[in-house]
């Protein structure tokens, strides 16, 4: 107990102040998370990136309509929902929202 | 300014850096995990580093705040900063074939070059801190030696 008291008394007060200042600034300048609705992205394997396909419909037919996308049978990830936009190709979609297949835009 | 005050300021700056680095990773853990997955490491190593790096940063931050752990924490901080800077240097050479994101709080808006300069500044002040600390011990030893001579 005595050792703890000594340790607490000898703590770097400038350091504590600096950390408190950084904590305050970090919290003050962190924007609040918006309650955005998850958006659908397709995984472009060739370019290792997620492509926004919100509002587009899937069309796996032989003569697909323009502006649609396809998910050909495959064990790869085709699409998924993201509550926050993916930052890279390795970003992980919201749990339980992925769909298997080879993604491509029609 | 007294050497002890300079040392307190130096350790405070480095401790604040580690606090911010750990805070920004832990406050948005999912994003931090995505950013780590974007790095060049295999997924198993990435998943370990996602929690290991902020843990080390918190330990170092605490170590820098207490006088009896300060030297060890300063050496460890210097080693970690050199490790981070070496990684940035390797990334900049393009040796891995791709440039992953330069992530981490405010640093994600910085280029790798600026990130490296930022790290080098902290390496420099850690070296200055260690220099002051070692000098202090050296002076203490000299004083003891001189005291022994007069006995």
From TrEMBL, chain A:
Top-rank taxon: Bacteria
Region span, Disordered: 79-106
Residues making up the signal peptide according to the UniProt record: 1-28
UniProt feature, compositional bias: Polar residues: 79-98
Protein name: Uncharacterized protein
Keyword entries, A-Z: Signal
TrEMBL record, chain B:
GO biological process entries: methylamine metabolic process
Source organism, top-level taxon: Bacteria
Pfam families linked to this entry: MauE
Bilayer-crossing regions: 6-23, 44-68, 74-96, 116-132
Main location: membrane
Keyword line: Membrane, Transmembrane, Transmembrane helix
Keyword Glycosyltransferase: no
Compartment(s) of residence: Membrane
GO CC list: membrane
Residues in Methylamine utilisation protein MauE domain copies: 4-130
Membrane topology, record value: Multi-pass membrane protein
Name of the protein in question: Methylamine utilisation protein MauE
Organism expressing this protein natively: Pedobacter terrae
Species classification: Bacteria, Pseudomonadati, Bacteroidota, Sphingobacteriia, Sphingobacteriales
